[in-house]
UniProtKB/TrEMBL annotation:
Organism: Actinoallomurus spadix
Gene responsible for this protein: der
Name of the featured protein: GTPase Der
Entry superkingdom: Bacteria
Function as written in the Swiss-Prot or TrEMBL entry: GTPase that plays an essential role in the late steps of ribosome biogenesis.
Annotated EngA-type G domain residues: 3-162
Subunit structure: Associates with the 50S ribosomal subunit.
Family recorded in the similarity comment: Belongs to the TRAFAC class TrmE-Era-EngA-EngB-Septin-like GTPase superfamily. EngA (Der) GTPase family.
Positions contributing to GTP 1 binding: 9-16, 56-60, 118-121
Length: 162
């Protein structure tokens, strides 16, 4: 079977939008309201002639106080089932407690992690991406899932990590 790439991150950072960008079609459900994607959904994807399975996560509605723990649990499950992890953070918001909880999980996991600094829609927002070095997961790769900016480089990095 093709290798599995899990997309993890807290609600509303743009995971499903990024999945659609990777697929080149609109299949993953994108909503302004967090928590719309069903629990975990797998799709077949191809990039540079290589096939892989992309798993979109995060279809639950945790209450605010349980958010960090719930997202970290989800990340743990996704990582166990994946060959590589694409961790999505909203660069315009910066790293939150929940992002840090996920980063802790991912640093402990013995799986390759690619850090996507999403919502970098233009050159001015690149500085927001740089701030995410603080998560301790290596270079934050700036991307705009919505507009496609940086998505080719991001996918190259994902395939390199596999
Ligand atoms: P998920 O909960 O992590 O799956 O996030 P979604 O993919 O559902 O996106 C949440 C919101 O962020 C939607 O309103 C998207 O249109 C928006 N969004 C996603 N990616 C980007 C991006 O690169 N730039 C901007 N400006 N908005 C984005
Ligand atoms: Mg989603």
């Amino acid at each position: 079977p093709p290798p599995v790439v899990a997309i993890v991150g807290r609600p509303n950072v743009g995971k499903s939008t990024l999945v659609n960008r990777i697929l080149g079609r609109r299949e993953a459900v994108v909503e302004d309201v967090p928590g719309v994607t069903r629990d975990r959904v797998a799709y077949d994807a191809t990039w540079s002639g290589r096939r892989f399975t992309v798993v979109d996560t995060g279809g639950w509605e945790p209450n605010a106080e349980g958010l960090a723990a719930a997202v970290a649990d989800q990340a743990r499950l996704a990582v166990d089932a994946a060959d590589a992890v694409l961790f999505v953070v909203d660069a315009t918001v910066g790293s939150t407690d929940t992002d840090e909880a996920v980063a802790d999980v991912l640093r402990r996991a013995k799986k390759p992690v690619v850090l996507a600094a999403n919502k970098v829609d233009d050159a001015r927002a690149e500085a927001d991406a740089t701030a995410l070095w603080s998560l301790g997961l290596g270079e934050p790769l700036p991307v705009s899932a919505l507009h496609g900016r940086g998505s080719g480089d991001l996918l190259d990095a994902v395939l390199e990590a596999l």
